[in-house]
Automatic annotation (TrEMBL):
Protein name (record): DNA repair photolyase
SMART domains: Elp3
Keywords: Iron, Iron-sulfur, Lyase, Metal-binding
Residues of the Radical SAM core domain: 64-301
Gene3D superfamilies: 3.80.30.30
Pfam family, one: Radical_SAM
Species name: Gelidibacter algens
Amino acid sequence: MDPNPTIKGRGAQINVPNRFFQLSHEMRDDFLEYCAKEGEDADKNKTLYLEVFPKTIVNKVESPDVGMGYSMNMYQGCEHGCIYCYARNTHEFWGYSAGLDFERRILVKKDAPKLLEKFIKRKSWEAHPIVMSGNTDCYQPAEQEFKLTRQCLEIFLKYKHPVSIITKNALILRDLDLLKELSKDNLISVNISITSLSEETRRVLEPRTATIKKRLETVKILSENGIPVNVMMAPIIPSINSHEILSLAKNVSELGALSIGHTIVRLNGAIAEIFTDWIKKTMPERADKVLHQIESCHGGSLNDSRYGTRMRGEGEIAKQINDMVKLAKLKYFRDKQMPTLNTSLHEQYKDGQLKLF
């Protein structure tokens, strides 16, 4: 038997112990052998949707280098399975592992639209852009079934409230009608995450995301319909996608994107173990090289939680990456700029319709 079987269609290949639990589960060799002899699946690899009941949905973002003031997440956990995802660690707060559980135990907040409406109707609330997907993708596969993102967009439109979206899923085009209505009053901006132009790289890094072709088409369609698009090349991973910065920037600029952003990969908390296990199984010939280069960007560690440096890194490799992004912006986005979202209309529409007096 293969001692390190690959779990197809998933990013993480293990369930690391939850740091808040004293006890942990492990898949023993004798159990795997028993399953093989009996012809049974040791791991059915199924996704479960579990409803949760939060009291609030909009979160104030305290981190000074994230670039957003408020965020909301209709789902916790993400079936996209991006191996590098910083949000994996948050799944431990819900009692699950940051590894496979993050991709297979999706927590669904069915009351999200009602909670959002209640929040933005507060008399004390002054309109400020709220970002959907500050933590997990609002257009992940669960959205096809629950349609919570669409319902929330309808709330934003009803109350003329500014909203920004971060996604790597072409499912956003399903809601093009709402996005176009929001854009008429400059109430919407979209951030499309594209980490590579290589479909092979995409499949191993982000196994259940939209294809690169679909994402590029999404940038083009949104831009053609007057919806401002920023492309996030996040994260940039040395020796995996770091060579693609200029080509990716050129491509998305030609498709209509107004700007690009980037981060350098950081492997905080449980993600370091999950990523290390993954790369040694999927890219064994360059695993050590990639890991050492990531360490060189963060003071010799895979972890980096320092505000101001955690997103951009330090050292020679980080400098080369950051300089290349600067060059890409100068070369392909010199005369482009994302608009500032409109916060002036919401106060007049707090009752769901225009106030005459």
